[in-house]
Design brief:
The chain is an alpha/beta fold. Helix content is 32%, strand content 21%. The strands form nine sheets. It has a seven-stranded mixed sheet with strand order 5-4-17-16-18-19-20, sandwiched between helices. A five-stranded parallel sheet has the order 7-6-8-11-12. β28 and β29 form a beta hairpin. The structure holds ligand 6R9. Residues 276, 321-323, 402-405, 427-432, 453, 515-517, 530, 533, 539, 542, 544 line the site of ligand 6R9. Ligand 6R9 is lined by residues 276, 321-323, 402-405, 427-432, 453, 515-517, 530, 533, 539, 542, 544. Its EC number is 6.2.1.1.
Length: 666
Amino acid sequence: MTASAPASAIESMLVENRVFPPADAIVQAARVSGMAAYAALCAEADGDFEGFWARQARSNLQWSRPFTRTLDASNAPFFQWFADGELNASANCLDRHVGTPTENKTAIVFEADDGALTRVSYRELFARVGQFANALKAHGVAKGDRVLIYMPMSIEGVVAMQACARIGATHSVVFGGFSAKAVHERIVDAGAVAVVTANCQMRGGKELPLKTTIDEALAMGGCDGVRNVFVYQRTATACAMRAGRDKSFAEALAGQSTDCAALAVGAEHPLFILYTSGSTGKPKGVQHSTGGYLLWAKMTMDWTFDLRADDVFWCTADIGWITGHTYVAYGPLAAGATQIIFEGVPTFPNAGRFWQMIERHRCTIFYTAPTAIRSLIKAAEADAAVHPARSDLSSLRILGSVGEPINPEAWMWYHQNVGGGRCPVVDTFWQTETGGHVIAPLPGATPLVPGSCTLPLPGIAAAVVDETGRDMPHGAGGILVIKRPWPSMIRTIWNDPERFRKSYFPEELRGYYLAGDGAVRSVDRGYFRITGRIDDVLNVSGHRMGTMEIESALVAKTDLVAEAAVVGRPDAVTGEAICAFVVLKRARPTGEEAGQIANELRNWVAKEIGPIAKPRDIRFGDNLPKTRSGKIMRRLLRSIAKGEAITQDISTLENPAILEQLSQTN
Ligand code: 6R9
């Protein structure tokens, strides 16, 4: 762990003096109106922490049984919130709107890859979720069971998640880009009893199979617990169906009533497990609660996005990631919003797709990742026909960014070219583990500074500290922590409470939550700027990838690979790019042969983890730079990957000649 931010980041922080205060009209109409209102909420949370959260929980959620206790810290860091209260997450997303004027409102506008549209109202969604929930029950899925969901972006994917929540089953959604091996690992770790998948997903005009991946995963052994596989027929293309185990949606839903009473569960009941990358080779099953998680999903919709009844909200994240959980599957529904769900990719049929969709649906709140913005900037610069200026974006009122730091240049482009200079850009910092936004501006209050996620939301005790937990002065880089628990925080790592404690609450940090990122606060405003991960986690296109996971995948190719080390290097579009240094069991290849083997290894990693984990660069060496005690010197590899001269101290390096060899491109 390093406690210092890169000098360049601090420097640009100190010179960033563009400030964009919210326009008066926006402030006046906002839910949290002006900085005084923000400060008042912070003061309320500070002064009466439990009272603040209890009031929010009572006013934002419908409880089947009211809670009497707000926070139970007796078994810290295994905090419990609203523990004796009971509620149902799906009831809080659907039933609460049925019988109100919202029931006829469009809940989801689904735009398929080919542009076809499907709309469902809250009442229709309520019925579809009820029917799917009954089908799950009829197949023996019960409260506490785990259901693995491997679905395309679709109304059906959200229905599957909501149906699990409705009957108290815990879902674990796996992103459709993960391989059979990765799916298998998650099925086994979660102990899933059922899988919900589709024959395929449509992306960029192509059919990508999903069900075959599930078949492969289930054939790997250890999945005997999986009794049912529900298959959504996305297209007419047939897929193999195993009798007794596999059912099409049509078959499973036939004859099922659309009425399914939502099961009230304890507030701490695990709503879902979502696997994410950590510093070791094994992904972590981040476990979230029902009450605390949903509370923050709803509250941040209202606060960060200043949601209004007539908004058309669009979060482009896949339901396989946390952003797609909180800001597609739960938050917008809990808040009664109309949202857009998009099946395809931003570049099909052309790179103007997002802008055309904003125009088509009169989208008002648009939430996407810096990687997407940067790649669309590139595309717009190369081809004026896909520039946002070609679309009518006047419906937009708020823009959001998530997943990685947004560089000020991309922020400015987004603000000007997409937001027409009038829409606040909310740069939202959060993580799978935080459940929802933790550091983010409020659009009707916070003056914006490009490249900064600004200030913690009320109730979130974020701080920058040194390695012993002491506060760092503003302007000095350090470790990002959250000093007090909050309702939507991770509850544990599934099957591994010890890893949970060690990863997030290390002893030397005084019980603070360790985010795993570095941060620095500006001298003038105390604004946070995230300087990147301080552990062995990379952020590639906003997706978290563990370097150890990729290394394990590479060395699993035992006929070829002797040793591998993976580092990240900065990339203008994807944020970071994956670079692998590989020692083969045969002579170091060069030229064409090196290219061939590199491709073979890339495809291997795609099979082991998924295409998103494919290394961009692969360099072969006779060895890796190591200390005399045998430790790989990753900081040297990072310099080589960047193509920069090595200026670091190499006195402990055992084999200095290797640096020269690895620096040559091969
Ligand atoms: C929501 C999500 C979490 C990691 C996090 C950090 C990076 C996310 C960011 C950001 C700078 C932002 N990150 N949002 N860095 N500014 N606005 O992305 O969750 O996939 O778990 O990734 O992403 O490094 O630690 P997750």
